[in-house]
Amino acid sequence: MKFIKYISILAIILSTSLASSQIKFEAKVSKKKLGINERLRIDFEMNKDGDNFNPPDFANFKVVGGPNTSVSNSWLNGKRSYSKVYSYFLAPKKRGNFKIKQATIEIDGELYKTQVVNIEVTAAVKRPNDPHNADNIASDNIHLIAEISNTNPYLNEAITVVYKLYVSTTTGVSNVREIDSPKYSDFWNQIIKNKGLKVKNGTFKGEEYRYVEWSKAVLYPQKTGKLEIEPLSLDITVEVPTNRRDIFGGRLMTQVNKRVAAGSKTINVKPLPEQGKPEDFTGAVGDFKFNVITSKSELNASESLQARVEVTGNGNLKLFKLPKLNLPSSLEVYEPEHIENVKTNIGGMQGSISDNYTIVPQYKGKYPIPSISFSYFDINTKTYKRVSSGEIVIDVLDGPTNSSNADNNIATINGNKKQVVVNNDQFAFVKTDANLKPVKPTHFFKSTLFWTALLGPLLAIPLALVYRRKRDERQADVFGNKVRKADRLAKRYLSEAKKALGQKEAFYVALEKALHNYLKAKLHIETSDFSKEKIQNILTERKVNQETITEFVSILEHCELARYTPITNVEMQQDFDKSAKTISIIDKEIH
């Protein structure tokens, strides 16, 4: 009996293990030790189809490909073999020992899990010497290069950076994604937008290649010394040939995911020479022309004319101040309007900037506008140059004569002082007839004031209860309180920006805070979520006009750039007015 009992138990154990061995779900990796510059492939394989596949979170890895799904069915000696695989391609984020946790799937109502996989990520490794390895082929045939026009410029001299992606003629590219963009710290920068990627033919290290200009930027260094340009990184799906061939003999292609970087570049920025530097030099670097132009030279008093101080040419037009007009005190002059008509292309800034003054003469006569000069550093000759305007005479033909000199003469005739005559009637303002009238007596009891004092507290009780309930509801509304607080902060910072007009650093710090707090109030996003792309996406989703979004983002960018550029009071006022106007427009358009 005992023997039969043992046989039965053994049969049960064997049948159970046989049943459990029928279904497999396991994780397989291409390698358990890899360099940080390598890629890892992980396959989740099962021998029976299931539902609700749930992969692990892949902490410490970035998914650069997948999931790719493959299914195979085969029959061998009358037995069916089934396999389904979910494949992922992973790029490690840092070095260390990591665990890839369990994946799960439901098969026939049962939940199955893979085992935990241990992965070691080491420092970057050299590629194995395998000419047929797809990764090696992709690395040898894809190159991202940063071409810099001048690595040793002067302060505020324009340089260009062109990023070129080279692809060999035997390799294809099916997808390119930018994963890390340079920030260009310590540079005034302008990204030159491509109107479409045009494939061109060229050579790389003496070999025939095709290439595209992925992006271009114009930079104006704002500090001297060694400045670093951060690398650009791209994630690329590369199609490379394999040793396998199709039925017609043609070589089959395979896809490999590669990450390429242009590498950081160092720019050595030279200071402008001190020798010969004019005292009124404000930082203009380039090739410029200077003019002072008036809309008219003859007019009547109380009519107005326009005087334009203008610089045209190529150079850092947005990064220096124009000289001020010196006008006679008898001409009424309004604060100038600053106008920029500047385009930035691969050659740098080109166009004109001007200050437009409105002048109103008060009296008849001839008024000279003295010559003023403008100095700049000529980047071609490497010397300072000065350009002066001619003297302009404004002829006021008709109007009153300036009598200020005559009045002064009358006040000091012959230099003699006039004797003060004392008025004998100096106390005439004191009234001697008071004209007093009796006051009628009033009774407080049953008067209007009596009933108000009696009934007022009784009427105030329900109002106090309503107020308390509303206050409690308001205090309980945590989200609403955060929105109202951000709104109040935006108004306060905007008022602080207005108070700080004329103080560049304090003004732009307060203005930027006001814009951020306005977004927190209107869009319900936290400070940590602020980025230009995030702001653009949210405003677009809320149906805000694209022109308004562009204007808002340009104000934020200008707040950042203003710390490196000279700014006039007029420009600060224009930025303040533009901010208030843009906020008002967003309030009207947002949904």
Structure description:
- This protein is an alpha+beta fold.
- Helix content is 26%, strand content 38%.
- It has nine helices and 30 strands.
- The strands form eight sheets. Strands 21, 23, 24, 25, 26, 28 and 29 form a seven-stranded mixed sheet that branches.
- Helix 7 runs antiparallel to helix 8 (546-561) and helix 8 (546-561) runs antiparallel to helix 9.
- The N and C termini lie far apart (83 Å).
What structural keywords apply?
591 residues; alpha+beta; Immunoglobulin-like; 7-stranded mixed sheet; 5-stranded antiparallel sheet; 9 helices; 30 strands; 26% helix; 38% strand; BatD; signal
Poorly predicted ranges: 14-20, 405-430
| Strand composition percent | 35-45%
Tally the structural domains.
Answer: 4
Instruction: Compute the number of strand runs.
Output: 30
Helix content: 25-40%
Backbone structural class:
alpha+beta
Biggest β-sheet, characterized? 7 strands, mixed
Mean pLDDT: 80
- From the spread of the alpha carbons, the general shape counts as flat
Radius of gyration: 40 Å
Work out the helix count: 9
Can I get a quick summary?
The protein has 591 residues and is an alpha+beta fold. The protein has helices at residues 2-21, 134-141, 404-411, 448-476, 478-499, 504-523, 532-541, 546-561, 569-589; strands at residues 25-29, 33-35, 40-46, 51-54, 61-76, 79-92, 96-100, 104-107, 110-113, 117-122, 142-148, 159-168, 172-180, 187-192, 200-204, 207-221, 225-229, 233-245, 251-261, 265-269, 285-294, 298-299, 305-315, 331-333, 337-345, 348-361, 365-369, 373-378, 383-388, 392-396.
